[in-house]
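INPUT
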Amino acid sequence: MIRVKGVSKSFGDKEVLHGIHADFEAGQVNFIIGRSGSGKSVLTKCMVGLLEVDSGTVHYGQEDFTAMGQKERESIRLRIGMLFQGGALFDSMTVLENVEFPLRMFSEMSSEERRQRAMECLQRVELEGAEHRFPAEVSGGMQKRVALARAIAGRPKYLFCDEPNSGLDPQTAIVIDNLIRELTLEYGTTTVVISHDMNSVIEIGDNIHFLHNGSVAWRGDRKGILDSGVQELDTFVYASDLMRDIRKQLQGR
Amino acid sequence: MGLLFHIGRYFAFLGSALRRPQKGRVFIQSTLVELEAIGVQSIGIVALLSLFMGAVIAIQTAHQVSGWIPAYTIGFTVRQTMILEFAPTIIPVILSGKVGSNIASQIGTMQVTEQIDALEVMGVRSISYLVLPKLVAALFIFPFLVVISMVLGIGAGAWVCNTADLSSFADFKYGIQIDFRAFDVTYALIKTCVFALIIASVSAYHGFYTSGGAREVGRSSTKAVVYSVVIVMIANLVITQLLLT
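OUTPUT
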């Protein structure tokens, strides 16, 4: 599991995170949700070490990630897979080379073993046949799946997904959601998904943290989110007419 | 303060770039790719410019010396100009426009599309992984390009003298042999290596610290070229003063 304790982060005078406490459980799809600017991405970047926290700690299992030097952090990072919002695929490499990359850097596998593992991952995300294309030659949804395949290539213990469904059509979004859920169960990863897509939250969210103005305003599961009693969360969840109609129908029963 | 900040951050960046590669085989493969991108793909422009410059220097010198200075001066001037200044300084300056902007825009695009974040999260030391192969490739290939430039420039000067009847080949040959000091070539290659490091590292630095989007990548690319050229010119003065006086 990943435990975030009292994490604060400021940029100049602006405090973006105020003493965040959160636990992200292993084998579950943990969500960090909130409006744009609520601090979701900053919290994630603090968790993976792309930003340094001002105060507080991030523990991976028993290990205090925030107290480690860059070299020690590398041992934790080898256990992390991350799906970035834009995919962040290396555009000079083919799809197969992208998926092979973490293995090429950090494993002692032979080129044949690497290729085999990369092909397994591509099959897992239903992308066999696209291995020799470049990222610019595949669709946005396929890029996300390639990025997911790359994230799981090293069999990570911790999987981060930043806005996995942004820019995708609803059907492709469901495919990505289901993949994240299946991979979490299959590998027993501690999966952290950053999103403001309520469909995904309702579909696959096990453990949900709602961020508002840099603090965790609510935490719970997908059943509780529809009737949280927290005004800011209700405003977030029922932002669309469709969701408001669903709520009325639920209340009418 | 801004200048000091950039100088400090540049040297810290250079320190990170010069760290031992995490995986030797990957480093060698990346360096080979960079050798092709920086060196092989630049041979055409280097050859073209050197041929024309050698020919033009020969014609201009012939025009200046005709009648009252020995004809071998043409060969001498072409040789000295190509070896001392055109090949080791002007060719790197031109390459800073081609190679430098390419390095800055490539790394800058990686930065704004989170590819560098992806490397970091994986545990890859992104600066060393991206920059060291470019530094090594530039350091290795620039001297070759400069020697090619010297040879082609002097050859073009000889050809134009012969075909335009500016001087005899024997005079030209005598001119390129007279008072030849091998140290001039050493000096040229030393400064070429320094310029190669400056161009590759300054361009990579500007690319790496790009933030924003496509417009900022373009700006970084422009800055990379401008700063590389300015620093190359300053270094040229310092090295010349140190080695030739």
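end of record. Chain B touches chain A at residues 22-23, 26, 109-110, 113-115, 117-118, 120-124 (CB under 8 Å).
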